[in-house]
Amino acid sequence: MMRCPPFEYRAPDSIEEVAAILDGEGPRAKVIAGGTDLVPNMKRRHQNPPMLIALRKVAGLREFKNGSGVELGAALTLSDLGDDPRLNAWRALRCAANSVATPHIRNAGTLGGNLCLDTRCNYYNQNFEWRKSIGYCMKEQGEICWVAPSSPRCWAVSSTDTAPALIALDAKIELVSVKGKREVALADLYKDDGIDYLHRKPNELLTKVILGEPAGWSSTYWKCRRRGAIDFAALSVAAAVKREADGTVTDARLVFGAVASYPVSSDAAQMLIGEKLTPELIEACAIKASKLAKPLDNTDYSIGWRKKVARAYVKGALAELAAS
After folding, report:
1. What is the pLDDT of residues 37-79, one digit of tens each?
2. 199: left (phi over 0), alpha (psi -120 to 50) or beta
């Protein structure tokens, strides 16, 4: 049986108290809500935080505020999001939330945890003895990226499901520290770096996700994985379009997941604006968008096949929206 290393446990009951502890402890402390990613990582010794700050008593992180848009507390579970009909207007988010792992994990895993999901790699996400036997990669204790040995950087991939969906929906997030609150676009949370993959500071807590007025928008999320459950994405596509009553597209977004160390937005979506979603336009957009997907050999399936899937999934997602 794999066990977690020793750690100090704190269970504050307010966002302010969490922020104060984070400010005092810095990088040595990590917050834990569902723990569906952090705890397995601790058992495999990927992460060894001396302190865990539990969010289970912080009621303010589980709020759902509904107005012209919505504000979603970061500790809402993925099941909360996937099952809530109030989010029908933001279909991509419900699809993404419902695609994560299994019902048991979605019942525990949270929105904030999925957005901050650790990057993954075939050489990194192994047990301690396996990693030690080949020599650690640079994401842990080594000096080499086993995916690209001559590369000076880590190429671990971002496999979060909710991030591509929410970026396609132009979501914002709120980050809180003892210095106050700041609101940023979700897309700006991520870095193209497999190790240092978030712009969130060690003393900041992600508290909520903010979605704007959905009028005129339709969206979806497509996920490629070997099995219909459990597996992380080998490639994913989030698509969102805003249309006039006659079907003319006035705005559009396409975002890839699991092809880089961050969710990748494609400017191919711009060719949809001012047009209607015809099969010919969708095909052209899928071809252009798929050129941006440049996966490496660090997750499931072959590189060439995943690139083909990128084109097929953009085409499928846009065809779904055209028919809606």
Report:
1. 999 999 999 999 999 999 999 999 999 999 999 999 999 999 9
2. alpha
Q: At what angle do helices 303-322 and 279-290 cross, to 10 degrees?
A: 150
* pLDDT, mean of residues 276-296: 93
The predicted pLDDT at position 304 comes to: 84
pLDDT number for residue 293: 82
Report the sign of the C-alpha dihedral through residues 104, 108, 109, 111, in that order: positive
Return the CATH architecture of domain 59-116+157-322.
2-Layer Sandwich (3.30)
* Confidence check: pLDDT of 294 > 80: no
Instruction: Kindly list the domain boundaries of the chain, sorted by start residue.
Output: 59-116+157-322
First to last CA, the chain: 49
What is d(CA 12, CA 221) in angstroms, rounded to the nearest whole number?
Answer: 35
Return the HEC string of the chain: CCCCCCCEEECCCCHHHHHHHHHHHHHHEEEECCCCCHHHHHHCCCCCCCEEEECCCCHHHHCEEECCCEEEECCCEHHHHHHCHHHHHHHHHHHHHHHCCCHHHHHHCEHHHHHCCCCECCCCCCCHHHHHHHCCCCCCCCCCCCCCCCCCCCCCECCCCHHHHHHHCCCEEEEEECCEEEEEEHHHHECCCCCCCECCCCCCEEEEEEECCCCCEEEEEEEECCCCCCCCCCEEEEEEEEECCCCCEEEEEEEEECCCCCCEEEHHHHHHCCCCCCHHHHHHHHHHHHCCCCCCCCCCCCHHHHHHHHHHHHHHHHHHHHCC
pTM: 0.97
Contact 151, 297 (CB under 8 A): no
* Residue 161 phi, psi dihedral angles, 5° rounding: -90, -40
Decide if 119 contacts 46 (C-beta within 8 A). no
Cα(221)–Cα(161) distance, integer angstroms? 9
